[in-house]
Specification:
By secondary structure, the chain is of the alpha/beta class. The protein is about 40% helix and about 20% strand. It folds into 2 domains: about 120 residues, Response regulator (Rossmann fold, 3-Layer(aba) Sandwich), CATH 3.40.50.2300; about 90 residues, Orthogonal Bundle (Arc Repressor Mutant, subunit A), CATH 1.10.10.10. A 5-stranded parallel β-sheet has the order 2-1-3-4-5, sandwiched between helices. A 4-stranded antiparallel β-sheet has the order 6-7-8-9, with helices on one face. A 3-stranded antiparallel β-sheet has the order 10-12-11. Bound molecules: calcium ion. Calcium ion binds next to loops.
């Protein structure tokens, strides 16, 4: 069961109700506000572990709410936006949201993002260390990787990189994130080193190699393509 408090700031009350039900069903405590001013009040009072923040709010809008929260805290914020185009704008503004969800969204998707962001926020110590994506399984604790039941021989760096991708299948990981996942023992001067590791990784993964996808200009993601 998940733990923690999620604050939802969103003026569409039916969405708040649905998200509240789903999050409570997963074990989270939920606080909610229907406008920005009340949201900021609640944020100070409840000190949530994560904020789900709608962009278009009456009164103090989501952007301003995010700025004020960021002025005081690094609490994870997931922005709820109406259009993909808004995400580009928000990223450009550098408000420091941890993730973005574009409406219409499924409550399940939002809950999955909440879990993923909280997992990242809590650091790798608390993160699970076994992942299965399609035919690929990665056991970070035992240093074992298997594709279709066949054990593969990877270096520690390759294993860590693969685990970072497998942790959140389908999510694009930037080179900097992948570099960080490999730890500080190898000091790469250049994020391009990640590309070299990915190239080796694809080759060693055999038939599972095609699951590692390049997202041009951004990074890589792992996806079960069948
Ligand atoms: Ca709204």
């Amino acid at each position: 069961m998940a733990t923690g408090t999620v604050l939802i700031i969103e003026d569409e009350r039916n969405l708040v109700g649905i998200l509240t039900d789903y999050l409570k069903g997963e074990g989270y405590r939920v606080e909610s506000a229907f406008d920005g001013a009340r949201g900021l009040e609640l944020w100070r009072a409840a000190r949530p572990d994560l904020v789900l923040l709608d962009l278009m709010l009456p009164g103090v809008d989501g952007l301003e709410v995010a700025r004020r929260i960021r002025g005081e805290s690094s609490v994870p914020i997931i922005m709820l936006t109406a259009r993909d185009a808004e995400v580009d704008k928000l990223v450009g503004l550098g408000i420091g949201a941890d993730d973005y969800v574009v409406k219409p969204y499924s409550p399940r998707e939002v809950v999955a993002r909440v879990k993923a962001v909280l997992r990242r926020a809590s650091g790798t110590m608390a993160a699970p260390d076994r992942f299965t994506v399609g035919e690929l399984s990665v056991d970070l604790g035992a240093y074992v990787v298997e594709c279709a039941g066949e054990r593969l021989d990877l270096t520690t760096s390759e294993l860590r990189l693969l685990a970072e991708l497998a942790r959140e299948p389908g999510r694009v990981k930037r080179r900097a994130e992948l570099l960080a996942s490999m730890g500080a023992r190898e000091s790469f001067a250049d994020e391009r080193a990640v590309d070299a590791h990915v190239k080796n990784l694809r080759r060693k993964l055999g038939t599972c190699g095609e699951m590692v996808e390049t997202v041009r200009g951004v990074g890589y993601r792992l996806r079960d393509r069948r």
